[in-house]
């Protein structure tokens, strides 16, 4: 079955540390990829997305992600995290033409220590 | 302000009772979705609707029902057949169902008494 995997359940970092959250998907065809973030008490909101073109995409709040087709990966990065980045991060993929569905990973909770 | 509203924020259900969760959007989006979020499970799709008067089952539709009589509204009913309804329910919409960004509402937390 097609799926999206996030490698880390909970990541704890100190402020100014670099962040990389892993995301892999299992599907051999064309995919659209997304990272969503859920801050405590807030709506799930879009961080960034990849549909086509440059595989390095930049999102809001200094986040970026790189699509590596050969590795079926779409890892999220930020060079220096802040306490306000504490949230849960979800990778999602539209797996298959006309699927009309997003498949979500199980999420990674990020805690940033001041 | 354009957006998605869900009500109520918290909902309590007694055993054997059906409850309906409201979702309204004023974004003029054609497609709407219902997800269930459980701790450590991510989001799982319950139902989606590409257009008015049309909807399809997602991965976990058993015990749920929906209707789409108006473009802006997509209510979800959690029936008594849903044996484990306690969860956080998220409604989303997108311009169309064809590979578009989905925008999410604030969610409804359903608790079984």
Can you give keywords for this protein?
A: 114 residues, mainly beta, 4-stranded antiparallel sheet, 12 strands, globular, B: 113 residues, 7-stranded mixed sheet
Overview of this structure, please?
- The complex is a heterodimer of chains A (114) and B (113).
- By secondary structure, chain A is mostly beta strands.
- In chain A, 0% of the residues lie in helices and 55% in strands.
- In chain A, strands 2, 5, 6, 10, 11 and 12 form a 6-stranded mixed beta sheet that branches. A 4-stranded antiparallel beta sheet of chain A has the order 3-9-8-7, with no helix packed on it.
- In chain A, a hairpin with a 5-residue loop joins strand 5 (31-38) and strand 6.
- In chain B, strands 2, 4, 5, 6, 9, 10 and 11 form a 7-stranded mixed beta sheet that branches.
- The model of chain B has no long low-confidence stretch (mean pLDDT 92).
- Chain B has strands at residues 4-7, 10-13, 19-25, 31-38, 42-51, 54-57, 64-66, 76-78, 87-94, 103-104, 108-112.
- Chain B is 0% helix and 51% strand.
- Chain B is mainly beta.
- Chain B contains no helices and 11 strands.
- Chain B is globular, with a radius of gyration of 13 Å.
Summarize the entry for a quick read.
The complex is a heterodimer of chains A (114) and B (113). Helices cover 0% and strands 55% of the residues of chain A. Chain A has strands spanning 3-6, 10-14, 19-21, 23-26, 31-38, 44-50, 56-58, 64-68, 73-78, 87-95, 102-104, 108-113.
